[in-house]
Amino acid sequence: MSKKGSRSSSQNMGGLFTFALVAVFAVLALLVAVVGVQAYQSVLDTTERNNETRMSLSYFINKVRAGDSYGYIHIDEYDGNDMLVFDHNYDGEEYQTRIYYYDGAIYEQFTSMDDDEFYPDYGEYLISSVSSFEVEIDPSGLMALTVIFDGDEESEGEAYTVHVAVRTMAQRRG
Hints:
Elements: H1 2-68, E1 73-78, E2 81-90, E3 93-102, E4 105-112, E5 124-127, E6 130-137, E7 142-149, E8 159-165
Antiparallel strand pairs: 1-2, 2-3, 3-4, 4-5, 6-7, 7-8
């Protein structure tokens, strides 16, 4: 009888050990899945941010190249921030396209040159989560456009700079 009770106890211990092993495996598999999902989400977030950054900087490069054909690009200043300005002439009328930083974003505004007042909130929203927009043109005509994106709790914002050769330009601050 004692052999029978011993065998039953041994089988119970074996079953308990098997159950514990399967439970540990399930918990570890779940943990690996959670870590994998977090890593995948991080990769997606980084890819999305890189695509947004690349597209916005490409927009600026193309805008400068298109505005360069009109022959007049300059830098103005509004509220202590750089403003990239393109002067245009359409059917004898003078217009300006202004790209500027305002209220945590970059905006673009198309307006008549006769319009002396500048209303930054009238612009078209281009890029969000920006802490700075800087434009410099060196004497050789090389333009540097720098966008500094907002950081998060863990890191400071990232700065991205693109350089564009401007064929016809004038620089003025005011």
